[in-house]
Specification:
The protein has 453 residues and is an alpha+beta fold. The chain is 29% helix and 29% strand. Bound molecules: adenosine-5'-triphosphate (ATP).
Length: 453
């Protein structure tokens, strides 16, 4: 069978994101900063929607999870205990002619892929960003920007246990920035030097770890489906024994079919007792759990589902990107699921005529109490629809001159182009039902089909 390929052109997606205010290169007026990105007005909404959906699913809707927001700068011993100081590195080679640097484990031959020049011997390059704490810049004041959020949860295991009185199995969840001085970058926001993670550390009794590992694999896969990502664009890739990280007993990636091919969106690992044992050793504290049933102190095993906000955003955008023909004109659209779409509803008066403005503004003011809503009265209605389609707004509400008489407005659905006409009274409830997935042609009292699409 032929290997599946993404239909999305990354350059077109990057261009849309820039043009519409989703994502800009960082410090663009200075020529940008390699592999750093700024999320614009729509991008920040998309990211917040992703993070909120994750937080609701893994913290707020569960009894066995609590949240945490640990600081980015941590005691430097953290990174010795975790193995990052010694082992968090990539093998780096440099071209002797053009001086470009490469990861030797990603190269096919032994020449520079750019100029064919000779390469140096591989040297291990630590991916952690170093900085200094306090006014003196010496070895004693070195701290690192965290390369993952996970360690904040391990070092707070005892604090959380003592303050929440949770019993096993339970988990800690955290969303936050992480930094890696990646050697090879690129593919837009897939691999950044500054990015955001959404991580869970789920503490379980040894012996139940396999069952919980399988549970989280399924749970996390279903979460991506709930955001509208297509099933055929996701697959599990179990790690072989040889590629398992030093701390992992078992690991599986959730891969997504990006424009450059299948690649990791989230990693789920069974870390055993590695982290608590290491931190107990380095800190001199006892990081264990008293089991009421067996009357024994045990060291829990940890299941870690570790996801990236940026890679989730990229998967959602790739999955949503589409081009078609609408009303005889080509259009670009994002089929974003309403739960992640930055703007849920756009309010569009048919014309700029003053007679329409007060009613349109009144409707806008009402709807924006409930959702991120946009108001647009510039240019033709067709152009305005296209603009909303391109940024992925699921519904447009149009106010026309009839509306002043019949107190009704039209709702247009982005994907199908179908329209219904509904009473302004009850508009909020109608839109809520549609955003929750009700078919557009299920009509409220007094509503009618306006356009078949
Ligand atoms: P890769 O093999 O692609 O470098 P990784 O296995 O090092 O990734 P993990 O350490 O498992 O990644 O990190 C967990 C998650 O954090 C990843 O699945 C990804 O979503 C996100 N992530 C890691 N590194 C980056 C990065 N440089 N840019 C954006 N997201 C990242």
């Amino acid at each position: 069978m032929a290997e599946a390929k993404s239909k999305v052109d990354m350059e077109k997606l990057v261009s849309l994101c820039r043009r519409r205010g989703y994502i800009f290169p960082s410090s663009e007026i200075y020529g940008g900063l390699s592999s750093c990105w700024d999320y614009g007005p729509l991008g920040v909404e998309l990211k917040n929607n992703i993070k909120n959906a994750w937080w609701r699913a893994v913290v707020q809707r569960r009894d066995d999870m609590v949240g945490l927001d640990a600081s980015i700068l941590m005691h430097p011993q953290t990174w010795e205990a975790s193995g990052h100081v010694e082992g968090f590195s990539d093998p780096l080679v440099e071209c002797k002619s053009c001086h470009k640097r490469w990861r030797s484990d990603e190269l096919e031959g032994d020449e520079c892929p750019d100029c064919g020049g000779e390469l140096t011997e591989p040297k291990l390059f630590n991916l952690m960003f170093k900085t200094f704490i306090g006014p003196v810049e010496d070895e004693a004041s070195v701290v690192y920007l965290r390369p993952e959020t996970a360690q904040g949860m391990f070092v707070n295991f005892e604090n959380v246990l003592n303050t929440t009185r949770k019993r096993l199995p339970f988990g800690i969840a955290q969303i936050g920035k992480a930094f890696r001085n990646e050697v090879t970058t690129g593919n837009f926001i897939f691999r950044c030097r500054e990015f955001e993670q959404m991580e869970i550390e789920f503490f379980v009794k040894p012996g139940t770890d396999k069952q919980w590992f399988d549970y989280w694999l399924e749970e996390r896969l279903n979460w991506y489906l709930s955001l509208g990502i297509r099933k055929e664009h996701l697959k599990l890739r179990p790690h072989t024994k040889e590629e398992l990280a030093h701390y992992a007993r078992e690991c599986s990636d959730i891969n997504y079919l990006y424009p450059m091919g299948w690649a990791e969106l989230e990693g789920i690992a069974n870390r055993g007792d590695f982290d608590l044992v290491q931190h107990a050793k380095f800190s001199g504290k006892t990081l264990s759990y008293y089991d009421d049933e067996t009357k024994e102190h045990i060291i829990p095993y940890i299941i870690e589902p570790s996801a990236g906000v940026d890679r989730t955003a990229l998967s959602i955008l790739c999955d949503a990107y589409d081009e078609d023909v609408a009303d005889g004109e080509p259009r670009v659209l994002l089929h974003l699921h309403p739960s992640v779409a930055p703007i849920k509803v756009a309010v569009l008066p048919l014309s700029r005529k003053e007679t329409l403005t007060p009613l349109a503004k009144e409707i806008y003011d009402e709807l924006r109490k409930h959702w991120m809503t946009s108001y647009d009265e510039a240019q033709s209605i067709g152009r305005r629809y296209r603009r909303q389609d391109e940024i992925g707004t699921p519904f447009c509400v149009t106010i026309d001159f009839e509306s002043l008489e019949d107190k009704q407005v039209t709702i247009r659905e982005r994907d199908s182009l179908r329209q219904i006409r509904v009473p302004i009274e009850g508009l909020k409830a109608t839109l809520q039902a549609k955003l929750d997935g009700e078919d557009l042609f299920v009509l409220p009292d007094g509503g009618k089909i306006w356009k078949e699409g």
